[in-house]
Amino acid sequence: MNKLAVISHLLSNALLQSPHKQSGTGFAPTNIALCKYWGKRDAELNLPITSSLSIALPNKGSTTTLTLIDQSIDRVIFNGRERSSTSPFVERLVQYLDLFRRERAWHLQVDITMNIPVAAGFASSAAGFASLVIALNDLFDWHASRQTLSILARLGSGSAARSLWMGFVEWQAGADPCGMDSYGMPLEKSWPDLCVGLLSLNNQPKPISSRRAMQQTVASSVLYESWPKQVSRDLVLLKQAIQDKNFPLLGSIAENNALSMHATMLSSMPPICYFLPETLEAMHRIWKLRAEGLALYFTEDAGPNLKLLFLKSDIKRVQIHFPEMLLAADGSQADPAIDARG
Ligand code: 2P0
After folding, report:
1. Which pLDDT score, from 0 to 100, does residue 259 have?
2. In this structure, which residue's CA is closest to atom 20 in ligand 1?
3. Is 305 in the pocket of ligand 1 (CB under 6 A)?
């Protein structure tokens, strides 16, 4: 099944005619995976090999506004600056919009604003595609469920399936070849004392996109065989840690999960290494502080920067050691009852 067939299955033809309104808007939060998505069983539909689990950063994310324009091409404005129609970013976005445009009779101005440090690689495509789908839902008046929007967002970028909710979200891998059972689900748990800090260490462009890196890992790493087993264990332990508010368990499993994902990359051929000297230096500082009694853990995605995990009671101590850290979530809004419209 291809993307168009999935969309036709989810939305009737009547819903795919011209937009109902002149404009539509949506906000979606960035999500940080505590148990990572790494590897696809279907590259066209972004269907994962394993489930994954994330926490949303409540006030950090992407707002997309779509406005119908009387022009022959789409215009994309990112953080106030118009982007060239030939840039890979705009091409990927327009290709995605085309999935919902059976006749090329209308075009849009797409305004995307992200309030996360974009150059530092924290602005994953997840919040971007999720906010785009919420804006399309508004523009077309689909009244689609969050589950449907999660599947639609996944077609743009896998991790976007988790950005439709606040709080903890599990993206179920599912087994259906068409992916109708592969979407995000909020956990009915909140943890107001849990904090996430963004530690920006190096803003150079990535050596390889996460999309390609995933593919290369699955195709060539002998260690990848152990990844699904690790994820099965980690999901159980993370949910237990969230249930019991057991922070050392949550921190140690999230950190180990990230390092194990990077281990599969290091063992791929050719090797993939997102660590930079600054990354390793920060990891050693975190481990030393932990040995000295500070409950501080990290997670790392497909880039050199770290996300710090700690409790509200330790904010000041963490800030003394990492004054440059951006406090992105203090857990107080990690409530699944609040939906992503903010
Ligand atoms: C995650 N990452 O779970 C993992 C951890 C990066 C490292 O999801 O190809 O941009 O669009 O489905 O979602 C980044 O990959 O990849 C990612 P595509 P995506 O957050």
Report:
1. 98
2. 33
3. no
Tokens coding 4: 């168009």
Under DSSP, the state recorded for 297 is: E
Phi, psi of 242 (to 5 degrees): -70, -45
Contact yes or no for 37/52 (Cβ under 8 A): yes
Tell me the domain boundaries of the chain. 3-186, 191-331
Residues 6+ apart with CB under 8 A from 313: 193
Residue nearest to atom 17 of ligand 1 (CA): 159
Query: Could you tell me which residue, 123 or 323, shows the higher pLDDT?
Result: 323
- pLDDT tens-digit series, residues 146-195: 999 999 999 999 999 999 999 999 999 999 999 999 999 999 999 999 99
Compute CA 48 distance to the chain's CA centroid, rounded to the nearest angstrom: 13
Which percentage of the chain shows pLDDT scores above 70? 96
Chosen CATH of 191-331 out of 3.90.550.10, 3.30.70.890, 3.40.1280.10, 2.160.10.10: 3.30.70.890
Mutation to probe ligand 1, out of 41, 46, 154, 157 (largest number of atoms < 8 A from CB): 157
Computed over every residue of the chain, the mean pLDDT equals 93
